[in-house]
């Protein structure tokens, strides 16, 4: 069991490149913490510093209340699984799984039992006598995972262990990782650039961009209440609508969001009015998910803006309409009659309801 604390951890690579910038973060005992971010944001560098494979330039890494900056990977008692789980090619799967226990001079009987139980849990019993070269990608990753787990370390560190697998195998193994790791209760820090993986696996997600921590929280917290526009945009597979606006509260009667060619009026009874009113006179950035918007008839008298459908896109499970409303085209769910709208018959006849879903704390900086 292990608690990991990062205190302003920084990495500057030789040549001066700042890969990780004062990241402070805690992985609680038994927690599944996911580090999420785009390629090059510093996730692997951070994980390698936790593992002791990369020196920390500044700041501290703490394990269970003790400073660990100078401990070797072995002294930290961590197990790592990488993208292409390197295995010993000349050893069988059984040999690969038992190797960490042999090194630790475990009892051979106990080792046999442990390998048998683990191979069952990972569904690789059939492959125990085969060599890695004869395994599929999914089986190889299972063995790599098993080899990391077999010794029951204090901490698992996983760096994109599923990214080389096809979609079906990724989903299957994702569920197994979750079950296995949770049943062992070992603190796990898992790196990925895949939002779905992060949302489905994590107890908490930490989002990085350009080496800087953007947001930390449970999947529901950061999905529903992202701290920055970057987080909101990154977590959404559908394009997020980001629209600049200035907030006014004319004579304190209502909140007016001035978006240039349009404005929206929110009565004080609207729960979104209070949040926006805190930014009176200031430019803000409104974040709106397509699924939070809805097409409404012209007769609708709630907060809405008029628009013209510019294009429709088929996304398999739904259509998205790109609606021109004087601000950048906003994708919204399918209007009631998509073909008619796409032909332009809808000019000025529809509106968009629910325009204000989320406002970001530092909108100007985010732009
Ligand atoms: P990916 O998902 O593509 O692996 P990542 O978020 O894990 O990306 P890192 O591998 O941590 O990112 O790299 C962060 C930044 O540091 C990148 O710009 C990378 O080019 C740079 N970097 C990584 N290793 C070194 C190195 N040894 N020397 C110089 N720069 C490096």
Automatic annotation (TrEMBL):
GO biological process, one term: carbohydrate transport
Any GO molecular function: ABC-type transporter activity
Keyword rRNA-binding: no
Domain of life from the UniProt record: Bacteria
Keywords carried by this UniProt record: ATP-binding, Nucleotide-binding, Sugar transport, Transport
InterPro entries: AAA+_ATPase (IPR003593), ABC_transporter-like_ATP-bd (IPR003439), ABC_transporter-like_CS (IPR017871), ABC_transpr_MalK-like (IPR015855), ABC_transpr_MalK/UgpC-like (IPR047641), Mo/tungstate-bd_C_term_dom (IPR008995), P-loop_NTPase (IPR027417)
Domain ABC transporter, first and last residues per copy: 4-235
One GO cellular component term noted in the UniProt record for this chain: ATP-binding cassette (ABC) transporter complex, substrate-binding subunit-containing
Protein known as: Multiple sugar transport system ATP-binding protein
SUPFAM superfamilies in UniProt: MOP-like (SSF50331), P-loop containing nucleoside triphosphate hydrolases (SSF52540)
Any Pfam family the entry gives: ABC_tran
Membrane spanning residue stretches: none
